[in-house]
User: Which sequence fits this backbone?
């Protein structure tokens, strides 16, 4: 029995090939975008894990100093007392505008070297004498080796596949020269095997703090918020794709009702029909899912390099730029395709199984959808309120995303009701009969189009929201750069001594010389960078304070107070009036909080004298030089000649700003790409909805033709209708998008990155988006409209004569 | 002469000629019943007269306008301003209410006369149904709305194709009576296609189509 | 690059000391070389010689516990120079490696330490004498009275050593030839320490007494290119005589050398071919066949003995691997001693 039934049911697809394409494209798009995001996330996480494992990060207990670094003599003290520890000097080196992590390890003792040895490419072994003695060797990933090609000022490079991207692995003796931190140790790794009779730590080095592996802040956790962000986007794209599936399956089922009724009349049990239909859907899901996986793999491959740059720029997280195919990823993708397809078809399937044997062939009820609209709207309101309530309860990052999801979904559910209100209001005002018809007809079409319009609403709101966030962020960031980067020249000395000589040399030649010294200190919120500054009007006038107590600068320069960045303030909940504990016994009141974008870690600023007390011997990392901008180029050249500086050691203000903005823009490349893709999917959803409604369309427009409207007139109205609905949806998406932007800026950003950003609106962007939407909607309606225009009158006449 | 059909030929899909040189004439105030077997070309002839479709040979002159020379737009003007159509399949606009449907054609033609529409509503017994949508009406009610809409624009010529074909006997009689009396009152001409001799007998003249010609 | 190769290469200069090291047989550019007729100066020469490539302070002891059981202890500090110079801090090209072992009749414990010179984590000073790496040390006012300590995860020892005789110089007054091609090292010993102290074992502490033997050797190119390993014996016989004898195994034939030491410290060098070594029995140790019972003959001295390992599995599974453990002597003479075998 199944054979002929299957044949009959499948014959539908032969005559409705477009539906097959639509269904497959819907499933493939949903699966593809979702899988792409998953692949990117999986790749990034694998990179973190690989890096941690290869470099032995976060696997061992560590000793750190409250003052920021450990002196070499302390290391020897510990060793000579029996403590088996391995010294690590960790620092950053700038290669162009790219920050590279320098991991200087004691090659003789570092515990993770055996892990690195597991990969053994076929190259001639290096002489250990070269590795361990000046100038040493830098072991780097091949890509970084290429980037460093022309850096003659650096030790020779050894490319290795075993090293994560953006990490330079080298001996500690090489690193201390490279970073100009002679005799300093960032941390000591406590090796797993310790001798018996080892004295306790506080007998030898009481100033050192033990850090168990799980207390160490790792990049994977820092970047979690970014991945959550991507996942949210992936899920949104998935949902938008499923709208297409839902619409197509619904129509296909409705069109096959007559056939199913006939089959049942001939004695085919309903249960069997449902099973066969289910099998049919599964086949579609598998086929669409497979296409989606291919699509997802391609998209992920295209986006991954940008994601990698973003993660490196934002968190210093090492991510490879290439993709590996993971079986689990493919399985999950197929699973999502199946679940999504069946979920989106559930309603249609349920209605099919409950269809009475004898019922009218009607496709859709015109009046009966008011109730459904109200129910959906009520569900939407409940969802929004629930999201707000649950966020108010927990206030975490996940709850923040939950709130976003609730508001978006809730608003989508409210859309049909709101659109119907707007349309009836408009139709009441309309005078011309054709206009009236257009409004009335739009309202009548709402049930068939509302899913596609919901998809459009979500895509538009996401676009407006994310766009507003990025633009606001960029505007704030640019302003902040102007405040923060004030010196005309920034000089990086190659050594401590050279730094001192430079300061002396620059003194009479510049308006002001501002040394920038910093050290890394442990804090309960993670690593904290302490900066020392000199008293200069530049800081007083321009530093971007977002909260301050009285006499901020006087107190800071007198060494009586500290400034902290917004990230630290929010993470530790410290504000002016509270105090910050540094290095155990240094307890300083907080005078102010400043904004500090693009930096994942906590930061604090004290006077130079205070820095010397807290962390003596902190090196001068950079020197800011204030000078008449017209003189800057000359001074830069003189500096370079006088001190024989390598290229890149003197950076101009404009270059610095341009580099910073370039990094910023790079950061959001992926976001905009996903944005455009989502909008594209929504546009496609409208197209498929219009195409699937096409078969029902003729009986509705034929009477108008009969009453004296030309086919081109009607076709024009068809395009207009689509454009009007899209425009209305866009108008409703605007406030939703702004709510979204506000949430992103004031809830998500604060929780994910630790900073909030004032919101700025960009109407020009909205206009562009509106034009894009109108174009998309017009294009979506163009195909059915064109078909209508070319329709022979005989086809229209048939409507009047034949039974539908 | 309001309508003059002269030796009209029409072929569908280059196969069998449907109309093979048909000629007839109809003047204002006259009613003509067009009868014939299924497939004899009655509906086709009506569609041509209603400016719904083009033809290959001969000429149709409607209210002084030669239809053979008209394009899409010209035909649409005729349909809008001069003729009204009532079909077997109730060709109402599903997204408009009864009230909206009733006045629609008249307003389109720029001849909206609320008093006349109200009279029609009364005469057709549609007063209680004005806010309903077509899908919620019975067949007879739908056909009354269709006649009301057709008459509301005061057409020069009313074309009806089996207007009672989907109705039972009682409803059929009511609809036909209403249509004939309204046509008489407005002075319009009526060209009605039917296969029923009883209905045809109630009109002024009858013409019978056999094999694409007037018998 | 191949990091595994790096790690192996990193310890290769040290490996050369214990195993055949073909790669380093040839080149000693920039380093000093041992010369015949060198006048040793003490205490200076107890200290390090960074201008030479390799050097070691090598102490072995045969001990008897209060429990009546035999024990063996090894304490070694190796120095290996990557360049013939020294610098402070991490920049130092001097690499230090410590090996400690404790052998019981049924178990063998060992541990290894690595360090860079220049930081103070490891080194040797001549006066007062101290050789150390991490908390392991061998120190005293001079080399006549030393304390020796080492500890690891599962064992530790602390011993006091007192010299009961003079230093003994091998070869030609301390110039010890290692091959027919003339490769040589400076080599002297203190073969007569009386030892007492405590061993810490998983079962608990054991008080011990016994005899110890310190070897001092440095060179820049101690082996010929074809030499792949050696068998080295230091034996204390019950009649008071002592014997140091080694065989360097080479593709072009073995090279032997020995020093016969009278009870008063008078020594006689025995040249190539004077001693014969015959493996009698091997044991499977660390997937290798290692000779654990030897026949050693010196016809001129009427010596014909069997040397038997106390514990056959005295394998040093360190970065470079070798066999090192206490032995007992039977036959024409009875006694105890230490055996080192490399290159198997």
Assistant:
């Amino acid at each position: 029995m199944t054979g002929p039934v299957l044949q009959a049911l499948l014959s539908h697809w032969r005559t409705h090939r477009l539906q097959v394409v639509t269904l497959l494209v819907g499933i493939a798009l949903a699966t593809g975008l979702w899988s792409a995001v998953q692949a990117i996330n999986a790749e990034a996480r694998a990179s973190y894990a690989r890096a941690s494992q290869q470099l032995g990060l976060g696997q061992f207990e560590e000793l750190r100093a409250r003052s920021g670094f450990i002196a070499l003599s302390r290391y020897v003290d510990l060793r000579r007392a029996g403590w088996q520890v391995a010294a690590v000097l960790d620092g950053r080196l700038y290669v162009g505008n790219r920050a590279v992590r320098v991991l200087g390890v004691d090659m003789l003792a570092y515990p993770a070297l055996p892990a690195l040895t597991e990969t053994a490419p076929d190259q001639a072994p290096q002489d250990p004498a070269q590795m361990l003695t000046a100038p040493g060797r830098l072991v780097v990933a091949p890509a970084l080796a290429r980037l460093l090609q022309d850096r003659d000022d650096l030790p020779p490079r050894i490319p290795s596949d075993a090293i994560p991207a953006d990490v330079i692995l080298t001996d500690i003796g090489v690193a201390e020269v490279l970073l100009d931190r002679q005799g300093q140790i960032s941390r000591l790794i406590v090796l797993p095997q310790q001798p018996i009779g080892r004295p306790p730590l506080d007998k030898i080095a009481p100033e050192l703090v033990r850090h168990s592996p799980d207390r160490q802040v790792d990049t994977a956790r820092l970047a979690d918020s970014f991945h959550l962000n991507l996942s949210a986007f992936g899920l949104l794209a998935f949902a938008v794709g499923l709208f297409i599936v839902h619409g197509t399956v619904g129509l296909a089922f409705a069109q096959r009702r007559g056939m199913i009724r006939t089959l049942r009349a001939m004695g085919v049990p309903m249960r069997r029909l449902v099973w066969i239909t289910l099998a049919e859907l599964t086949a579609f899901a598998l086929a669409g899912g497979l296409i989606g996986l291919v699509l997802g793999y391609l998209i992920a491959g295209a986006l991954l390099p940008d994601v990698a740059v973003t993660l490196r720029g934002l968190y210093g997280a090492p991510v490879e730029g290439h993709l590996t195919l993971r079986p689990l990823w493919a399985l999950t993708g197929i699973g999502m395709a199946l679940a999504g397809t069946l979920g989106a078809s559930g309603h249609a399937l349920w209605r099919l199984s409950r269809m009475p044997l004898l019922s009218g062939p009607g496709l859709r009820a015109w009046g009966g959808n008011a109730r459904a609209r109200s129910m959906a709207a009520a569900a939407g309101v409940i969802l929004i309120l629930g999201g707000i309530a649950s966020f108010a309860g927990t206030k975490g990052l996940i709850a923040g995303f939950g709130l976003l999801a609730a508001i978006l979904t809730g608003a989508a559910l409210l859309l049909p009701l709101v659109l119907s209100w707007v349309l009836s209001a408009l139709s009441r005002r309309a005078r011309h009969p054709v206009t009236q018809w257009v409004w009335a007809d739009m309202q009548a079409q709402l049930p068939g189009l509302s899913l596609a319009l919901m998809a459009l609403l979500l895509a538009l709101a996401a676009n407006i929201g994310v766009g507003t966030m990025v633009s606001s962020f960029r505007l704030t960031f640019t302003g902040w750069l102007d405040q923060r980067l004030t010196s005309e020249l920034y000089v990086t000395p190659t050594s401590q001594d050279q730094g001192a000589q430079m300061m002396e040399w620059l003194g009479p030649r510049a308006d002001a010389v501002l040394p920038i010294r910093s050290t890394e200190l442990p804090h309960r919120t993670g690593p904290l960078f302490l900066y020392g500054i000199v008293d200069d009007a530049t800081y007083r006038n321009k530093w971007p304070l977002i909260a301050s107590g009285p006499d901020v600068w006087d107190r800071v320069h007198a060494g009586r107070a500290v400034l902290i960045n917004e990230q630290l303030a929010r993470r530790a909940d410290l504000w002016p009036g509270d105090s910050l504990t540094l290095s155990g016994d240094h307890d300083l009141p907080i005078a102010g909080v400043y904004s500090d974008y693009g930096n994942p870690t906590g930061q604090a600023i004290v006077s130079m004298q205070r820095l010397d007390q807290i962390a003596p011997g902190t090196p001068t990392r950079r020197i800011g030089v204030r000078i008449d901008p017209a003189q800057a180029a000359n001074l830069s050249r003189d500096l370079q000649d006088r001190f024989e500086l390598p290229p890149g050691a003197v950076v101009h203000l404009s270059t610095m700003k341009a580099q910073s903005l370039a990094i910023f823009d790079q950061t959001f490349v992926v976001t905009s790409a996903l944005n455009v893709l989502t909008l594209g999917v929504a546009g496609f959803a409208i197209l498929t909805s219009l195409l699937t409604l096409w078969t029902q369309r003729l009986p509705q427009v034929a009477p108008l033709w009969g009453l004296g409207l030309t086919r081109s007139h009607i076709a024009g109205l068809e395009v207009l209708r689509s454009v009007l609905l899209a425009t209305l949806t866009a108008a409703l998406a605007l406030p939703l998008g702004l709510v979204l932007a506000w949430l992103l800026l004031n809830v998500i950003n604060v929780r994910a990155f630790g900073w909030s950003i004032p919101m700025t609106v960009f109407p020009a962007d909205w206009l562009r988006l509106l034009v894009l939407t109108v174009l998309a909607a017009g294009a979506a309606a163009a195909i059915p409209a064109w078909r209508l225009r070319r329709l022979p009158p005989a086809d229209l006449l048939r409507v009047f004569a034949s039974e539908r | 002469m309001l309508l003059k059909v002269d030796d009209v030929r029409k072929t569908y899909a280059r196969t069998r000629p449907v109309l093979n040189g048909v000629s007839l004439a109809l003047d204002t105030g006259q009613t003509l019943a067009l009868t014939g077997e299924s497939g004899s070309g009655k509906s086709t002839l009506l569609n041509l007269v209603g400016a719904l479709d083009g033809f290959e040979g001969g000429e149709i002159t409607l209210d002084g306008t030669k239809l053979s020379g008209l394009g899409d737009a010209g035909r649409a003007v005729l349909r809008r301003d001069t003729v009204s159509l009532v079909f077997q399949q109730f060709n109402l606009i599903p997204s408009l209410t009864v009230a909206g449907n009733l006045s629609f054609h008249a307003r389109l033609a720029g001849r909206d006369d609320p008093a006349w529409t109200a009279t029609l509503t009364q005469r057709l017994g549609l007063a209680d149904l004005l806010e309903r949508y077509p899908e919620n009406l019975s067949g007879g009610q739908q056909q009354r709305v269709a006649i009301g809409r057709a008459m509301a624009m005061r057409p020069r010529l009313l074309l009806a194709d089996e207007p009672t074909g989907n109705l039972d006997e009682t409803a059929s009689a009511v609809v036909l009576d209403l249509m004939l009396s309204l046509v008489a009152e407005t002075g319009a001409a009526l060209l009605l296609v039917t296969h029923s001799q009883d209905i045809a007998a109630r009109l002024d003249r009858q013409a019978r189509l056999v094999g694409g010609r007037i018998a | 690059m191949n990091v595994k190769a790096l790690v192996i290469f990193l310890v290769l200069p040290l490996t050369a000391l214990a195993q055949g090291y073909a790669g380093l047989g040839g080149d000693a550019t920039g380093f000093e070389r041992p010369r015949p007729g060198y006048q040793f100066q003490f205490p200076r020469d107890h200290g390090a010689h960074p201008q030479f490539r390799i050097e070691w302070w090598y102490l072995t002891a045969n001990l008897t516990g209060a429990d009546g059981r035999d024990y063996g202890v090894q304490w070694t500090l190796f120095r290996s120079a990557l360049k013939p110079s020294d610098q402070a801090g991490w920049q130092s090209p001097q690499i230090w490696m410590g090996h400690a072992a404790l052998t019981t009749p049924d178990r063998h414990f060992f541990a290894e330490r690595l360090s860079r010179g220049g930081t103070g984590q490891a080194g040797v000073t001549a006066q007062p004498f101290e050789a150390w790496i991490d908390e392991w040390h061998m120190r005293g006012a001079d080399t006549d009275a030393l304390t020796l300590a080492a500890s690891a995860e599962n064992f530790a020892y602390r011993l006091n050593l007192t010299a009961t005789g003079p230093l003994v110089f091998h070869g030609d007054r301390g110039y010890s030839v290692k091959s027919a091609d003339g490769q040589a090292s400076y080599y002297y010993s203190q073969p007569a320490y009386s030892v007492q102290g405590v061993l810490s074992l998983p079962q608990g502490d054991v008080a011990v007494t016994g005899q110890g033997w310190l070897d001092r050797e440095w060179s820049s190119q101690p082996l010929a290119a074809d030499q792949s390993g050696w068998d080295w014996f230091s034996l204390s016989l019950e009649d008071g005589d002592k014997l140091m004898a080694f065989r360097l195994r080479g593709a072009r034939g073995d090279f032997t050398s020995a020093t016969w030491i009278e009870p008063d410290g008078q020594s006689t060098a025995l040249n190539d071919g004077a001693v014969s070594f015959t493996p009698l029995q091997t044991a499977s140790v660390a997937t290798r066949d290692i000779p654990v019972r030897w026949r050693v003959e010196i016809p001129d001295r009427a010596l014909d003995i069997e040397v038997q390992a106390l514990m056959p599995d005295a394998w040093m599974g360190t970065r470079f691997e070798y066999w090192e453990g206490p032995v007992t002597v039977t036959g024409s003479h009875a006694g105890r001693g230490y055996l080192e075998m490399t290159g198997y």
User: Anything to note?
Assistant: Residues 1-26 of chain C have pLDDT under 50 and may be disordered.
